[in-house]
Amino acid sequence: xxxxxxxxxxxTGLITLFSSNAWAQNxxxxxxxxxxxxxxxSIISPSFGLPTAENKGWNSNxxxxxxxxxxxxxxxxxxxxxxxxxxxxxxxxxxxxxRWIVNSHSHADHWLGNAGIADDNTEIIAKKQAANxxxxxxxxxxxxxxxxxxxxxGNSQLxxxxxxxxxxxxxxxxxxxxxxIFSNNGHSEGDVLMWLPKQKxxxxxxxxxxxxxxxxxxxxxxxxxxxxxNKVIKLNPDVVLTGHGNVTTVExxxxxxxLLTHVWQxxxxxxxxxxxxxxxxxxxxxxxxxxxxxxxxxxxSAIKEQITTMYKMQSA
Length: 316
Ligand SMILES: [Zn+2]
Hints:
single chain, 316 residues, 7-stranded mixed beta sheet, globular
């Protein structure tokens, strides 16, 4: 999810104080993992957007799969407490140890749960650039999330990636063949997607979308995002797992690639022709609403944000 919290830090006041009792009650998640493919499970948050008191910080998805040698967890949520709840949910499925955690990227709703899940020997895998950002902003992110959730996400302990991916890697983890795919800053600096070629399942983090529009933040590289979507389409996955929203199929990836290609072209040519963002937004709504509004829960609001962000990228 997009994190403008670093800016928000400057505008918010003191950290909300909270009692440990209230914190414990508020963090009583009972996650029920759903099997999405053989030995692969999802924990899907119904909430989209930033962590809030209402969603108790649970605004992103986590996934895990079970191998003969242990469990791999993909993304760990917005707090240590959520991580603990994910771990408890895993224990309802298997007694295998948690051997690997993959953090799809540095946005704090995808990794602050690490400390709640990891055992002593758990390898935490991420892209090097993402790990750098985590190290730089992790402490601020914990405080910001605590403010945004009125203290509910608490004072999560930070556990950083220990295994840093630098180039395209294929690995066999407990008899599961895995390929890591890099988006080259498609969504954020240091995104990593995970592809299981035998099972034909892709774990996309925030590079892939299902119910909601693709998340475009100012740091995103839209052409590289589109290229990554096209790469995923070529893999032809049976199951597409996203950072937010329900489990989906390759049709969502095709939809996003087509939409983003159209919008990016519209913004680029509009900018070159000297159009103002509002003119491009009006044009985009006229051209795209009937086809795309039924395909996303937030088309109308997100198209405006996307174009505003993409317009600023043209002059950068
Ligand atoms: Zn994100």
